[in-house]
Known about the structure:
- By secondary structure, this protein is an alpha/beta fold.
- It has three domains: 3-92, Arc Repressor Mutant, subunit A, CATH 1.10.10.10; 95-164 and 271-299, 3-Layer(aba) Sandwich (D-Maltodextrin-Binding Protein, domain 2), CATH 3.40.190.10; 166-268, D-Maltodextrin-Binding Protein, domain 2 (3-Layer(aba) Sandwich), CATH 3.40.190.
- It is built from ten helices and eleven strands.
- The chain has helices spanning 3-7, 11-23, 26-33, 37-51, 67-93, 105-122, 205-211, 228-236, 246-255, 284-294, and strands at residues 56-59, 62-65, 98-103, 127-132, 146-151, 158-173, 194-195, 224-225, 242-245, 258-260, 266-277.
- Strands 3, 4, 5, 6, 9, 10 and 11 form a seven-stranded mixed beta sheet that branches. Strands 1-2 form a two-stranded antiparallel sheet.
- The longest helix is centred in the N-terminal third of the chain and has 27 residues, at 67-93.
- The radius of gyration is 26 Å and the shape is globular.
Amino acid sequence: MSRYLKHLPPLDTLITFEAVARNGSFTRAATELCLTQSAVSKQIRVLEDALSLSLFERQARGISLTRAGAGLFAEVSAMLERLQHSVNRIKVEHAPNAVTVQCTHAVAQFWLFPRLLAFNTAHPGITVNIHANNGLDESSTADYDFSILYGNGKWSSLDAHRLFAECVYPVVSAAIPVADIGSPADLQTLPLIELDSSGWNCMDWRDWFGHFDLEHTPAPDSPLFNQVTLAYQAILQGMGVGLGWDFMVRGKIDSGDLRRVGPYEFISGNADYLAHSRHKTLSEAAVIFRHWLLHDGRCV
């Protein structure tokens, strides 16, 4: 007998348990699962018997998880989430006309999405699935056809093609009056929107000023955000001067919603690259997507 069948309760009982625990109700779980309430109750009894544990406390005004039930719920909900993600990923990966791409939230929203509209027009038979993840790295690329990775383009397990260079400069809402600056140091007299990049690999004001041999200490009352996209929204709302990545802000500058503050910019030498595993054969759809993005996609 399989060790899973021998030592684990039936999967359907775990799915039912997760629904009851999450909803806090047998009735609501039954509605969600398209089962009768008696069928849900029976599934929970089967699970409790299999574990020799009581998972719920039945009370006059409803149910609550026991200590064992709370522990099982934490494990089962995470397990089912991972299982669903893995199954969906495998289905997508092996679909003949689908391409999977992993990139940051900012790249997905400001650079890739506008190009997907043009790609879909040119290749309506190919579906591109985007997974936005700010924690992506070389190792996670193996789970996708492509990753758009930031760095120097040198990854031992990946083939990488440069998409766009990193160019960062100060920007402000066009509705906010800001005096002209004569040097990067003048920026430190302005209200700056700070970016906390301690949790990931991203430029902040300290890095930007450091490029011009200047020290930077954030003002105690400066607004602080831990995501580039949040800082971008703060700039649009007129909260102050913020760092603008050219691929994100160029459209708003052209439309007149944002403007640069001074001519100073930091071109770091890093870039965003379209990368894929050297040990994975690309599908025909993925090859078409790569060729389009590296050629026609640059013109969008």
